[in-house]
């Protein structure tokens, strides 16, 4: 791709409008939203968003009060009614300010004015324990973005997630696209993760002949819509050289029984993996902040506990430290690629094994230059 | 105190205690059971104390790792085995007579433990650390070298207060938290929060450890 795709502010804004505001994006975990009034907040395409549980129903709203714009929920996650801290406006599950304290004395909105007040809402879809949202007023069907088998695999595996979740965010100085390219490149672990991940997993990197043909072929008109589904896949990825018999692994309801490295890649910016055959799962969400800055949101949870055990939080902490090591290796490489880019930097030369990235690139460039096909 | 003491464990505090003996308790004979690594606790070590009879005192010394669960494990197993523990204080530490110290507590060289403070079982206070007046440290904790815990501060169980961390007066730190980035902390810290130089933002754990995914209400 041209260097501008990774560096230009104008490109970044266009990409936000043409891609991110139209696709379904990962927004959080249902396990963190299990109770009435539980909420999570985040920023999506520069918009503050709150996802809140109203008696079991999840709703996604713009997290800004209709009175004078205060954020409704302040914390990253918690449990509290959807109620503004500034002057106490309270919102219902339709996003209407159902309770405006001292309305008649101080505000005196007409019935019509009040009826017109409603928080902006966003389409929301859950797949197992994964919550996705779409910022578009008329979202594309979820099934246009992901194929049925992939959705089923996400659903089954994420239903195995335990409710105790460790999470943090760090910032990488690279464009988010370097992350999706890196994740679809099975040839890097043997070099980048030689001392870490590649010691326990035999990553398989081969050439998908059908994909090579498609990536090189002249695209048929109208084929773009169907292409999108091919950018996401998941399931069993590579064999493990054994799974260390830590006691906690015996205390969780393992997903599946394969000693495998599981990997799910959901275009554009979500990666889920289980590096220990379904005993624990990690989610990496690469959130674009600026052309050269990406938030890396990391979550870890084990599979559901059979019963609580006292040191479960330290298991999660150890898993998070593992991520820092492995993801840190990726971040260093991606940051070095980003740092080297300049307006006249040479474009890459991708090989046969990188056909899926080339296919995505073709679709993406069409989207960015010609408006594309959705 | 006189008699015998069996020191079991490994790591920096373990070696510090072994090296400083007999200055810590001049009349006590020290026996040392050195584990190869914290991972060695996975295999039974109890029989290595078999010669320790009748009913000598023991002390479990392992540095902080995984929120002190390795030390907790050794401590708990020895306790279940009916062993008697002691509290060890480096001769250069200053411990106020009104401070309450639990068993298997270590107070390092030059540490100051002020009046009316309390330190729960199996908590280690490092070299030159300060525990100020009426501060409360719960069990299975760790206070690193030169760290300080302000007056009336409350630290939950299994917490790690890292080296050079200063917890302000009256601040509460929830259990299972680890504050390892040096600096002053004046705001309360929720349980299961990890503040670590490795991570830009605090690492948080959400969701009850007791509840399963998907349960509502
Ligand atoms: S800004 Fe929300 S109630 Fe005033
Ligand atoms: Fe990688």
Describe the protein.
The complex is a heterodimer of chains A (374) and B (217). Chain A has 13 helices and 13 strands. Chain A is α+β, with helices and mostly antiparallel strands and 374 residues long. In chain A, the strands form 2 sheets. A 7-stranded antiparallel sheet of chain A has the order 1-7-6-4-3-2-5. A 6-stranded antiparallel sheet of chain A has the order 8-13-12-11-10-9, with helices on both faces. In chain A, helix 10 (209-216) runs parallel beside helix 13 (355-370). Chain A is globular, with a radius of gyration of 22 Å. Chain B folds into 2 domains: 3-85; 88-207, UDP N-Acetylglucosamine Acyltransferase, domain 1 (3 Solenoid), CATH 2.160.10. Chain B is built from 2 helices and 23 strands. In chain B, strands 5-8-11-14-17-20-22-23 form an 8-stranded mixed sheet, with no helix packed on it. The interface between A and B is medium-sized, with 36 and 27 residues. Strand 8 (165-172) of chain A pairs antiparallel with strand 23 (203-206) of chain B, so a sheet runs across the interface. The structure holds FE2/S2 (inorganic) cluster and fe (ii) ion. FE2/S2 (inorganic) cluster (FES) is lined by residues 65, 67-68, 70, 84, 86-89 of chain A.
Task: Please write out the topology.
The complex is a heterodimer of chains A (374) and B (217).
Chain A: H1 4-7, H2 9-20, E1 24-29, E2 38-44, E3 47-54, E4 57-62, E5 77-79, H3 103-107, H4 111-115, E6 121-127, E7 130-134, H5 142-145, H6 148-158, E8 165-172, H7 176-183, H8 189-192, H9 197-200, H10 209-216, H11 224-227, E9 233-239, E10 260-266, E11 270-274, E12 280-290, E13 293-302, H12 312-340, H13 355-370
Antiparallel strand pairs in A: 1-7, 2-3, 2-5, 3-4, 4-6, 6-7, 8-13, 9-10, 10-11, 11-12, 12-13
Helix pairs in contact in A: 10-13
Chain B: E1 3-10, H1 12-20, E2 28-34, E3 57-62, H2 69-80, E4 84-85, E5 88-89, E6 94-95, E7 100-101, E8 106-107, E9 112-113, E10 118-119, E11 124-125, E12 130-131, E13 136-137, E14 142-143, E15 148-149, E16 154-155, E17 160-161, E18 165-167, E19 172-173, E20 178-179, E21 183-185, E22 193-195, E23 203-206
Parallel strand pairs in B: 1-2, 1-3, 3-4, 5-8, 6-9, 7-10, 8-11, 9-12, 10-13, 11-14, 12-15, 13-16, 14-17, 15-18, 16-19, 17-20, 18-21, 20-22
Antiparallel strand pairs in B: 22-23
The structure holds FE2/S2 (inorganic) cluster and fe (ii) ion.
